[in-house]
Write a structure and sequence with these properties.
alpha+beta; Dipeptide-binding Protein, domain 1; Dipeptide-binding Protein, domain 3; 3 domains; eleven-stranded mixed beta sheet; about 30% helix; about 25% strand
């Protein structure tokens, strides 16, 4: 599906913006061109949705007991060690001595307990259901007691599957209040908060008391530049050092520009079609054949080459292949004739009006390409774009109808991914299948790894056969950095789309 404007207009804009003079940043500053509008709530771990975007900020401002790092998916951070009881019900963490918040207060067990109980993000219902209590044994030791053995406790707690392990200062939050904390957050990470212009720019400065190391880059500026051509132009002019999310002809132009380095990573992110009305009796989407028709209507590889230079991986599963317990499911091949035949078989020989189609921002051009393919086989849609935070809020509140592109980039495994999207308790799920619910409950407490894997593979096959989703691809996230950067941190943490650890960033001297 050719769209000349997609190729020509961004390059015209890129040339126009590149002709402007470069602006100078203060010495020791690294500036990022961020592809999303920075939301105030993304500075607070308690608000974490089941997506990766807030961790762009968390790795700067905050620290976690345990988090993904270059060495491990569950790397010791504010906790220097932990143990688990033989029955799998008790986890005890020993806090790192000398770790402190930006205001000078030490990180204590009370902060850990407070942060966990304050957490109200996407995984909060799961924790409330499975954690009996959190006890402060002493200022440097915290004990989590589970109601039942839960093999995925650390998968949820110690990765980006949730933000529950990221620690905030209890005394400070209680002093300034929830709104005050969001306006001026204090954390235990490598960078301190300086200022925020919501939707425009976040400024941070190095915290010389960070336990791991003092950051080499003294000042970070995260600048919201939602327009892709403008981000690329700012990188070419030297106004920013790192630009996130570059695609198609713009990414190709950056790749061919001397002095700029393009890099991509296959992240935990998977993009997929959501059919929220499949759970509504009488809806066309309640018919499996209609949902199935949408999948072969899409030429995934052609969109992949056009939008992400082939770096993404077309797939038939919402669980990325590299995650534990994932079932490798190939994508449906592009077959518009089959799509039309399925629609006719379902009683729609002339197609159907499918209502609104909402892309997942900032992947709007990808969404438009998908809509074009759907329209070509008779699934007629009207593209409606939304700001990212608004879409995520509407998704969680079950207000999105018609068709929309879903995405999640959180870490974890097949169980954590399926729980949020395919079970009744999932914050991003519109409905569930009784057989899936039964199998999911069985695997939650199964301590035998092979038996558990078999259950999770069975669930993934059922989700595929019932066409609960139409997976598109495992996202190949494209970034680029300029000539001032010695270490961009873009390949240090496996599957992490952003720079990190931020204390490891370096500028050339």
């Amino acid at each position: 599906m050719k769209r000349p404007w997609r190729t020509i207009l961004p390059l015209v804009l890129l040339v126009m913006f590149s002709s402007a003079p470069a602006g100078a940043e203060p010495a020791g500053t690294m500036t990022f061109a961020v592809h999303v509008t920075i939301a105030t709530r993304w500075l607070d771990p308690a608000e974490t949705d089941a997506e990766i975007t807030p961790f762009m900020m968390f790795y700067a401002l905050h620290d976690a007991l345990v988090k993904p790092m270059p060495s491990s998916l569950n790397a010791p951070s504010l906790a220097e060690s932990w143990t688990v009881s033989k029955d799998g019900r008790v986890w005890e963490f020993v806090l790192r001595k000398g770790a402190r918040f930006h205001n000078g207060d030490p990180v204590t067990g009370e902060d850990v307990k407070f942060s966990f109980e304050r957490y109200r993000g996407a995984a909060a219902p799961i924790f409330r259901e499975r954690v009996r209590e959190v006890q402060v044994v002493d200022p440097g030791r915290v004990r989590f007691s589970l109601k039942e053995p839960w093999p995925d406790f650390m998968t949820f707690y110690g990765t980006s599957a949730s933000g529950a392990a990221w620690i905030v200062p209890k005394k400070y939050v209680e002093k300034v209040g929830e709104d005050g904390f969001r306006r001026a957050p204090v954390g235990a990470g490598p960078y301190k908060f300086v200022s925020l212009q919501p939707g425009i720019e976040l400024v941070l400065e190095a915290f010389d008391g960070y336990w791991r190391k003092t950051p080499a880059v003294k000042r970070l500026v995260l600048r919201s530049i939602p327009d892709e051509a403008t981000r690329a132009a700012a990188l070419k002019r030297g106004e920013v050092d790192i630009a996130y999310f570059l695609n198609g002809p713009i990414a190709d132009d950056v790749r061919r520009t001397p002095g700029l380095t393009l890099t991509a990573t296959r992240t935990n992110g998977v993009l997929f079609l959501m059919f929220p009305d499949q759970w509504t009796a009488g809806s066309p989407w309640a018919d499996r054949r209609v949902r199935l028709a949408a999948s072969p209507a899409i030429d995934r590889q052609t969109i992949n080459e056009a939008e992400s230079l082939g770096f993404s991986g077309p797939t038939g599963n919402i669980v990325p292949r590299h995650q534990e317990f994932a079932l490798a499911i190939p994508p449906d091949p592009y077959d518009p004739k089959r799509a039309k035949a399925l629609l006719a078989e379902a009683g729609y020989p002339h197609g159907l009006d499918a209502g609104e189609f909402t892309p997942f921002p900032p992947y709007n051009s990808m969404g438009e390409a998908i809509a074009n393919y759907l329209n070509a086989v008779g699934i007629r849609t009207r593209v409606r774009t939304m700001e990212r935070a608004a879409l995520l809020s509407a998704w969680r509140d079950k207000k999105l109808k018609g068709l929309f592109v879903g995405a999640t980039g959180s870490a974890g495994n097949a169980s954590t991914r399926l729980e949020s999207l395919a079970t009744a308790r999932g914050v991003l799920s519109y409905g569930s299948i009784p057989e899936v619910e039964s199998l999911f409950q069985a695997q939650i407490q199964e301590m035998d790894r092979k038996k558990r894997e078999d259950l999770l593979l069975q669930i993934q096959r059922i989700v595929q056969e019932r066409v609960v989703f139409a997976p598109i691809w495992e996202n190949g996230f494209i970034r680029a950095f300029g000539p001032r950067v010695e270490e961009a941190g873009l390949t240090l943490i496996p599957a992490f789309p952003y720079s990190g650890p931020l204390e490891d960033l370096r500028l050339k001297r």
